[in-house]
Amino acid sequence: MTAIRIDGKALAAKVRAQVAEDVEAFGKPVCLATILVGDDPASHVYVGAKHKASHEAGIDSRDHRLPGDTAESVVLDLIAELNADDAVDGILVQLPLPEHMDEPRVLRAVDPAKDVDGFHPLNAGRLFIGEPFLVPATPSGVLVMLDEYGVALEGAEAVVVGRSEIVGKPMAALLLGRNATVTICHSRTADLASHTRRADVLVAAVGRPGLITKEMVKPGAAVIDVGVNRTEEGLVGDVDPAVFEVAGLMTPVPGGVGPMTIAMLLRNTLIAAQARKP
Ligand code: NAP
Question: Do β-strands 157-161 and 201-204 pair in parallel, antiparallel, or remain unpaired?
Fold first, then answer.
């Protein structure tokens, strides 16, 4: 058996086209502001891609780039300014921040109504109590993928490997919200394979190349590989490509989850604008 390959690029293009249509129908300006501190090359590429995608969807954007030695107070002042600016609907602080900054404190400074990354404790809490508003883009993109490919979630055994605030925990909350039976695994999990082998839906969000091997996967399972690992062989996921031989459907890396993330960020920006300017 060879797994159906989930086409993240095609699906992301579809979501982006829908957002563009919805932005036009909304009829009011929608604006995303980004803050990037430091000179991490990957972060500059990501932020550039977010601006390009925003413009293609008819979303205005503001690009704030600050040197790596900027004081945290300067970033907090900028966030306060953007919070108060009625023209700004979404604020995104590109991670990672430089070491001298307290990342949770900076993220908590963003107005939850403009928190398009969904990292503010209020938005995280809303997701966990079943009242989602702005949900982190990567796991919500995974949910769209599962739906688009017709994966049944109700009553399914879902196993999420990784428990970060950005991917693992919100992914688990989304799957629980859809009535899957959810197991969250992490670095202290004893016998990881005994959990992953039970999964009808397996999401790997770890950051360890090839951690999930084909012996760890139930035949026919839906396998979503969130991992992005830079190796000498190029970009690879957390799931060994040999898993394509046993899974029912699976995302490739690259071209799977990655493209969905920006599409869902655009959607979050529109959701924030719609909530602020009904
Ligand atoms: P993270 O914050 O480093 O979290 C990694 C998680 O994996 C932690 O919960 C950790 O457990 C767990 N873990 C580590 N080693 C493990 C092992 N051997 N067995 C089981 N669990 C293990 O990473 P993240 O931000 O969630 O990102 C995860 C991956 O997704 C990375 O490769 C990242 O680049 C990628 N990513 C991709 C996108 C995208 O758009 N495609 C977006 C975000 C992230 P502990 O909690 O016990 O330490």
Answer: parallel
150 lines ligand 1 (CB under 6 A): no
- Exposed, middle or buried, 124 (CB in 10 Å: 0-12/13-18/19+)? buried
pLDDT at 1: 73
As a whole number of Å, the end-to-end CA separation of the chain is 49
With a CB cutoff of 8 Å and minimum separation 6, the contacts of 40 are 96
Q: Which residue has the tokens 């972060």?
A: 43
Atom 13 (ligand 1): residue with closest C-alpha? 187
pLDDT score of 18? 98
Angstrom distances, CA of residue 43 to CA of 36, 79, 211: 8, 19, 25
Domain that holds residue 105: 29-111
Q: Examine the fold and report which residue of 53, 76, 111 is the final residue of a domain before the chain moves on.
A: 111
Separation of CA 186 and ligand 1 centre (Å): 9
CB 261 near ligand 1, within 6 Å: yes
Element (H, E) at 267: helix 257-276
Residues 88 and 187 in one domain: no
Structural domain includes residue 13: no
Taking the whole predicted model, whether its pTM rises above 0.85 is answered as yes
46 found inside a domain: yes
- Enumerate residue ranges in the chain where pLDDT < 70: none
DSSP 39-50: --HHHHHHHHHH
For helices 41-56 and 257-276, the axis angle rounded to 10 degrees is 60
